[in-house]
Design a protein that fits this description.
By secondary structure, the protein is α/β, with parallel strands linked by helices. The chain has one domain: Rossmann fold, CATH 3.40.50. The protein contains five helices and eight strands. α3 runs parallel beside α4. The protein is globular and about 50 Å long. It starts with a strand and ends with a helix. This is Nicotinamidase. Keywords: Hydrolase, Metal-binding, Pyridine nucleotide biosynthesis. Pathway: Cofactor biosynthesis; nicotinate biosynthesis; nicotinate from nicotinamide: step 1/1.
Length: 208
């Protein structure tokens, strides 16, 4: 059972969004080719889904600026621009993504006091989204993942999948992902590779 996990391919992380990843929209056609390839038995997605005034927003902390390191619930926390607020266009999946062919969407980041990079659980590793249980129930044996952003939500999702889905073959699809900084992307790929996650391209999986 092969599954594709599309991580946070949302307006907010694409050009024009509130927390745009450089060239974030370039992942959409690659993701669409993967969806249409027939390779996958199951296609799932995650969606950042923050309440207004979320604790990771710089605007919720007087005097703090976006991309400044602060803390949230006693732990270090990057301060972000307000993004992917529930019910806004910023939070919607990219309009050109083949959304009707996604089997299920898991929302994350809904608690005010904790951020959620991973598609599987919050950063405090307490609250889970239900994604791991769902994939186990479906009998998934191989999981390919990609999306936005490589150095945050994609990396943390991959590492959580490694821990929460023992025995499942994991692949990170590099050309179907983009990150915030080149150094961050390089470090994330290195960490994933060293953890035993295969680094692949869409062409390797489905051809040109």
């Amino acid at each position: 059972m092969k599954a594709l996990l599309l991580i946070d391919i949302q307006n907010g992380f694409c050009p024009g969004g509130n927390l745009a990843v450089p060239d974030g929209d370039k992942v959409v056609p690659v993701a669409n080719r993967l969806i249409a390839s027939g390779r996958y038995d199951l296609i799932v997605a995650s969606q950042d889904w923050h309440p207004e005034g979320h604790g990771s927003f710089a605007s919720a902390h007087p005097g703090k600026q976006p991309f400044e390191l602060h803390e949230l619930s006693g732990k270090p926390q990057m301060m972000w621009p307000d993004h992917c607020v529930q019910g806004t266009r910023d939070a919607e999946l990219h309009p050109e993504l083949r959304v009707p062919e996604i089997d299920v969407i898991f929302q994350k980041g809904e608690k005010h006091h904790v951020d959620s990079y991973s598609a599987f659980r919050d950063n405090d590793q307490d609250a889970i989204t239900g994604l791991a249980d769902y994939l186990r129930e479906q009998g998934v044996t191989e999981l390919d993942l990609c999306g936005l952003a490589t150095d945050y939500c994609v990396k943390f999702s991959a590492l959580d999948a490694l821990e929460m889905l023992p025995g499942v073959k994991l692949r990170f699809i590099e050309d179907a992902s983009r990150g915030i900084t080149p150094d961050g992307v390089a470090a994330a790929i290195k960490e994933m590779r060293e953890s035993g996650i295969d680094i692949v391209t869409s062409e390797q999986l489905i051809g040109g």
